[in-house]
């Protein structure tokens, strides 16, 4: 490459091309992807966002979510005229993740984008937590993220195209979140979410030569459905007290961030984390 061609790769004013539209960078038309934890609040809203943007999406969750996942897939397919398929997998089970790889290729052909999002906060996850609580949290949140992300990036490399991995970390991976005078019970949970972020960063470095980006999103308190019926209005007010924006986030506020990270609008972003937490992490 001469110096002239090296510099030619950096167009200065793409907007001057009459056919150029910057909003096209947010499109996912022609992309294929999957979302784990797809029956949950963040997962199904991201699947909907990706579908609206034109992607075919496999929504992946535990077999016990079948009654949610089947009608969800049918509704999204009809609404957005793309291929949305429900697939079942316990992400902490190695053989099920191996089987998921085959099912994904059969159902949607390949994987360009993957939202590695399945996660749990097991009761009893405090300073005195039993070994079983710790291990279950690590198995699902961290080992599950490793296995599903590795399966996804292997598909991307075997099919000789790039892609985007987006991991769900958490506010709790950065702060010992504080509710009403003490830390919330997120000891192992926070450890897994910090680990997920660092794993995403490592993959960003290792997979850049293959055109694969890897990033994390860290939700703060999001009204995803998991708090419905579990906290009182007083509990709600206590939780949002340290949040500068003084409210929960919504599922769509996470989905739009994940859409950005999946799309070419973020084509020069890898190895980073986006806090979507109303400003909680500034303290
Ligand atoms: P959710 O409970 O609605 O969704 C989680 C989904 O993961 C569920 O559908 C569940 O069935 C699935 N899941 C659990 N174990 C699984 C397994 N072994 N294999 C496959 N799927 C499994 O919760 P959500 O709020 O949508 O959370 C999604 C992600 O966001 C989680 O990783 C969670 O830790 C993270 N997060 C949520 C918040 C919040 O405030 N809602 C904040 C920070 C991070």
Automatic annotation (TrEMBL):
Cross-referenced Pfam families: adh_short_C2
Domain of life of the native organism: Bacteria
Swiss-Prot/TrEMBL keywords: Oxidoreductase
InterPro entries per the UniProt record, alphabetical: NAD(P)-bd_dom_sf, SDR_fam
Family membership: Belongs to the short-chain dehydrogenases/reductases (SDR) family.
PANTHER family reported in the protein's UniProt record: BENZIL REDUCTASE, DEHYDROGENASE ARBD, PUTATIVE-RELATED
Protein's UniProt name: SDR family oxidoreductase
Naturally occurring in which organism (per UniProt): Bifidobacterium aerophilum
Lineage: Bacteria, Bacillati, Actinomycetota, Actinomycetes, Bifidobacteriales
């Amino acid at each position: 490459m001469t110096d002239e061609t090296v510099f030619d790769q950096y167009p200065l004013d793409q907007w001057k091309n009459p056919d150029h539209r910057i909003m096209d960078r947010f499109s996912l038309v022609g992309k294929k992807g999957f979302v784990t934890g797809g029956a949950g609040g963040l997962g199904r809203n991201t699947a909907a966002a990706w579908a609206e943007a034109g992607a075919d999406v496999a929504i992946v969750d535990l077999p016990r979510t079948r009654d949610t996942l089947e009608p969800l897939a049918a509704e999204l397919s009809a609404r957005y005229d793309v291929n949305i398929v429900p697939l079942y997998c316990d992400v902490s089970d190695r053989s099920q993740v191996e089987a998921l790889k085959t099912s994904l290729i059969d159902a949607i052909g390949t994987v360009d984008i993957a939202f590695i999002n399945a996660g749990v906060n097991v009761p009893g996850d405090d300073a005195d937590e039993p070994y079983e609580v710790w291990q279950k949290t690590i198995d699902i949140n961290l080992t599950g993220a490793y296995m599903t992300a590795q399966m996804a990036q292997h598909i991307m490399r075997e099919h000789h195209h790039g892609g985007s991995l987006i991991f769900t970390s958490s506010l709790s991976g950065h702060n010992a979140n504080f509710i009403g005078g003490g830390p919330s019970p997120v000891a192992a949970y926070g450890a897994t979410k910090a680990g997920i972020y660092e794993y995403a960063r490592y993959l960003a470095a290792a997979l850049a030569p293959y055109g694969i980006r890897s990033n994390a999103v860290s939700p703060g308190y999001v009204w995803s459905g998991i708090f419905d019926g579990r906290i009182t209005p007083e509990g709600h007010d206590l939780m949002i007290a340290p949040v500068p924006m003084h409210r929960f986030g919504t599922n769509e506020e996470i989905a739009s961030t994940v859409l950005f990270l999946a799309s070419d609008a973020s084509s020069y972003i890898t190895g980073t984390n986006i806090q979507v937490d109303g400003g909680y992490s500034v303290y």
